[in-house]
Amino acid sequence: MRITNNMIRSNTMLHIQKNKETANDYFQQYASQKKIQKPSDNPTIAVRALKYRTTLVEINQYLSNCEQAENWMDATEEPLKKADEILDTMIDYVTQAANGTNNDKDRSTIAAQLKQYCEFIYQQNANMDYAGRYLFTGYRTDVPLLFEKDSSNVTYTMTEELKINNIQRYNYVYGQPEYDDSKSASDYANEASEYLETHRIQLSYDNCDKRDVTVTYTDASGKSQTITAVTKSIGDNKTFNEQYHPADDEIYFVPETGELVFGDGVYDSIRAGSDLKVQYSKTNFEKNDIRPEHYFESTAVDNVTGETKNYFNIKEQKINYQINFSQTLTVNTLGCNAFDTSIGRAVDDIYNVINNLDVMDQTLASIKKRVEDCDPNDTETLATLQELYNRTETEISLQNTVLTNAYTHSITVFQNAKDTLNVALAEHGSRYNRLKMTSSKLEILQTDTKESKSANEDVDLEEAYVNYTQADLLYQASLQATGKILGTSLLNFI
Asked: Is position 8 within any domain?
């Protein structure tokens, strides 16, 4: 078979092209440090690369979610711990007050200090925000936990679930002598103060509306019972405090103090039952009062526009972050599950008793002044004033006992609030630990995925350099050989 120059030229050009392509491929690998430049180079590597890259993107997103969740939970943990420390301080403080003898200045100091502690818990901790979002308000992160100013434009009708065990045996002073120049000593004697007992529970708010208040519960037989409470204002009968003296089958509602007072028969029935709830209304809120929509199922009616808003599923507002494949984590803690409203109500109770004692001390001083200024020869008036003085002293003594009981009760309230807070802290801590373990696992998975991705896509630089050098030498050699072969033709032999 005759081999022509054209055949040699074609074959050598073909081999040169192949060598050039091979050299170019190795050069591209060396320059890009990747095994393939396009999917058709190696479909298996391309498919695996897509899988590894997709997985890595997801892992990076989960790690970012974990970081955001950790920041939120770190911001949440600090106010919870601070509130817990303040409750410890309040318990110690009230314990000292209950066990000591306090004059009027001491009482005022105690009341003021407890108010400050209470405000610190609610304003500086429960109302805490992070990056412009409130931590303890569930889904409504743009709405503060507390009212930012006085409000009277919206009426809230709320349903509050009460713990039957929180119905306390409450001692109060029944009877309060008041000065009247027409009264005699016997009149004051008939108004003598007594130390009586009833059963009451405090709602989460005072200064409530004087509207129908409905109390529902399930009795021992499992039957639902509904009672409409009788509204009894403090001003109805100041002398005998009738608001604490309901009939056997009645419940009194005291709107000024936000109290439910139970008759003995009703109390026995409720104590043997379960699921105690009360529905009541409130319009006038003060600055830093808790917004009802964060704690209770409620209906809010705008008294100007008539607009109505309903709030429900208060305790189910979980903010979930996806932190791993098919794994979510609740990052928020609800204020209603951490900061008990009873803290402020117990402080209000102490504050009210101390205010009453301050008024009584002033009244006693006024009576004493009247006795001193009284004509010694006016024995009847002097005897009347002395009787009033004695009765007022007795009332002060009884009110001091009520104050001691209020201190003692507040210790229990603060301890229960601390227990509630500790449960929230423990739950928060367990979720935080899970977050840290998941984050650690993701970091390991991220490293493994990067290594697998690199092993699949990346070339060994040393090997790539050697391959490229060899291919380039082969290409250069083929060029030289071709030059020699094609440089000789038939004309050289003629």
From this structure: no
